[in-house]
Amino acid sequence: MATVLVIGGTGQVGSATVRALLKEHSSVKVRVGTRNASDGKKKLGKLADSVQVVQVSADDEKTWPAAFHGVSAVMIVRPGDGGGNSVVRLAGAAAATPSVQAVLLSTGFATADPSTPLMRSMLQLEQDAFRAVERHGKAFTLLRPHFFMENFLAPGFIGEKSFELPLQPDVNFSHIAVADIASVAAAVLAAPAVHNRRTYTLTGPDLKVKELGTVLSKVTGRKISVESLSDAEQRARWAKVGMPAPAIDAFASIYGQVASGALAYHTNAVRDVLGRDATSFQQWAQDHAHAFSVKK
Ligand SMILES: NC(=O)c1ccc[n+]([C@@H]2O[C@H](COP(=O)([O-])OP(=O)(O)OC[C@H]3O[C@@H](n4cnc5c(N)ncnc54)[C@H](OP(=O)(O)O)[C@@H]3O)[C@@H](O)[C@H]2O)c1
User: Which protein residues touch ligand 1 with a CB less than 6 Å away?
Assistant: First the structure.
């Protein structure tokens, strides 16, 4: 039985991938990489009973050999705080392991538009990771997910009558449900040779910001409209909840790209890999309607 390792498997994308592997690819054994095994088990909850949990940190090479040993494919979920060179070295070390046949990298971002420093660094990371894996003759697959629908679940994001975004109502962009990212990742890990050298830009259908409000109104039964914040207003809100300045700059840069229309398209990648359409925003919102109720 093949064993796959999910580094970042305690996080949002990684744990959803673990669930998808267990549900949709039961012939595969799952190993979860976490920086601290006992904390990792706590984060996984019941899932921990169905997987092997190992300690691995992108920043600590000593943890790598044992984590990779006997594994056939490795998924690296790029940590939210960057990763940079350590992610590239981690990918290379995984590929250098005899048992490992494939590395799957999920960057967490979607655009290949190199007009901002953040996106240039992301493209560099992708290329360097690809070369680090290819050097060992192993398969490499890249996932570039668009805006996560789960971002709408952040506390206070959707209020009683409005939701606030640093985007104008007519801005068009596409989104992806984390469960769809996870199902694609699981399918790649279960049959990596089929997906060698493929880049999957993962989106559901694109919608205008105001159309998101229409869907949310329908699902909640309340009239929910968009409050478009200026860049300065949004930055002030992030600062108020304690977000560090570099993170504020990174998020502002991402929203700037969305505002410029960089995510105003959709792809068929989910259909190509899974043979079904990506979850629509309407479907996702219905499935999460309980999260949008307002406490009186
Ligand atoms: N496009 C979007 O709208 C969007 C939305 C949210 C996130 N993202 C991006 O998508 C990616 C995944 O997001 P997520 O929400 O799944 O993140 P998350 O829930 O914060 O999970 C991050 C994972 O990375 C692991 N990790 C952190 N630092 C590590 C290190 N040095 N070495 C090894 N593992 C490390 C953590 O594991 P342990 O703590 O157990 O070690 C955790 O499992 C990130 O790059 C994030 O920036 C994109």
Answer: 7-8, 10-14, 34-35, 40, 43, 57-59, 77-80, 108-109, 145, 147-148, 151
